[in-house]
């Protein structure tokens, strides 16, 4: 691009930044007033979880999370509609393959831990799902062309699992007399855990499928007759 | 004590801005993406300092990890295309 | 208070840096990195506002919003990269209908800036 033009754009953006900084500074100088934090902390014992961020995500503002799972699903559908994926990488050498055999189960285990611990400490469905997705990325990098994902039909079911379980739970609660996604007292913890488990699986599969970057092929190519690859296939 | 903490904050933020600037200004795609990953990891460190461990975990795993892996694959293709374009004059 | 302004201000600077790079740099991957840095700046302002000094616990509501935002940003990035990859495939493939149109179409872009000289360039 033209050097003068980029300088002009730089000056304009810098002016915008100065205005924003001034607005931010004068906002900070004002009295913050009633903040949501105290209200959120006050009602925390009723939410079924003791991690305030998980409480906001899955109880106070569960709509946000449901819609966000919808956005994730829409993005994946967009990626799938663009055609088949590129061919995968070549098979990993013995050292990398051995490391993958260790790292992938550890990532899945850590994901499960993060999912469980999210109720009362930092963690939760997103972090756990990201770890599952990362396990898929590692497997694709090590030469598994479909990132360790199951068949196409299973992938399609798993991807809609998060938004599906979320919506079904909400509708069921609405029909039984509570509001949409208003948990009955005493059962919030288990309902949240159910939704989070489904969301974790969906997020993990979605992220791994997004990394593969194309519509899943209906028939997986037969694995090459190697002893090491056969044992790696059996591991998952 | 307060001054030391302020100095610590300043170092964190200056490094963050420097990493962002370096990621923006590098024209080699692979270099830019690697600097972006470093930026994301540093950002998660800063958020851990601000008392947001949940968000820091998510940024390190999703923003820097998966986003970085996606971008690295694209950068690899872009770099390969650049060299192939240079090889055959069009 | 001053720490909050420092952190929030850094977020605004990140936003401005990303905006500048988005407007100035042409390659799609660089634009995408710039867009992600803009988003990181916005998230940073949220986290800075949520931080209420070292004594009080931070506000969980902005944290949850940022958590949602990170996932949405990555899914948008993944979609953009897939579109970009598809675009590259289209560019690499030879055009199926080999009409004589490619010549003038390539000359269209410089014609915007150098109107009189483009006419002279058509004849050898």
Automatic annotation (TrEMBL), chain A:
The keyword Nucleotide-binding does not apply. Pfam families: MnhB. The chain crosses the membrane at residues 66-83, 95-118, 124-145, 157-178, 190-212. Residues 97-208 form the Na+/H+ antiporter MnhB subunit-related protein domain. It is found in: Cell membrane. Residues 216-236 are annotated as: Disordered. Keywords: Cell membrane, Membrane, Transmembrane, Transmembrane helix. Its main location: membrane. One of its GO terms (cellular component) is plasma membrane. InterPro entries: CPA3_antiporter_subunitB, MnhB. Coiled coil: none annotated. It comes from the Bacteria. It is a multi-pass membrane protein. The keyword tRNA processing does not apply. Belongs to the CPA3 antiporters (TC 2.A.63) subunit B family. This is Sodium:proton antiporter. The lineage of its organism: Bacteria, Pseudomonadati, Pseudomonadota, Gammaproteobacteria, Chromatiales.
Automatic annotation (TrEMBL), chain B:
Keywords: Cell membrane, Membrane, Transmembrane, Transmembrane helix. The keyword ATP-binding does not apply. It comes from the Bacteria. Coiled coil: none annotated. InterPro entries: MrpA_C/MbhD. It holds the Pfam family MbhD. Its main location: membrane. It is a multi-pass membrane protein. The chain crosses the membrane at residues 6-25, 32-50, 56-75. Residues 15-78 form the MrpA C-terminal/MbhD domain. The keyword Transmembrane helix applies. GO terms for cellular component: plasma membrane. It is found in: Cell membrane. This is Sodium:proton antiporter.
TrEMBL record, chain C:
One of its GO terms (cellular component) is plasma membrane. It is a multi-pass membrane protein. Residues 86-124 are annotated as: Disordered. Pfam families: Oxidored_q2 (PF00420). The chain crosses the membrane at residues 6-25, 32-51, 63-83. Residues 111-124 have a biased composition (Polar residues). InterPro entries: CPA3_antiporter_subunitC (IPR050601), NUOK/Mnh_C1-like (IPR039428). It comes from Lamprobacter modestohalophilus. It is found in: Cell membrane. Keywords: Cell membrane, Membrane, Transmembrane, Transmembrane helix. The lineage of its organism: Bacteria, Pseudomonadati, Pseudomonadota, Gammaproteobacteria, Chromatiales. Belongs to the CPA3 antiporters (TC 2.A.63) subunit C family. This is Na+/H+ antiporter subunit C. It comes from the Bacteria. Its main location: membrane.
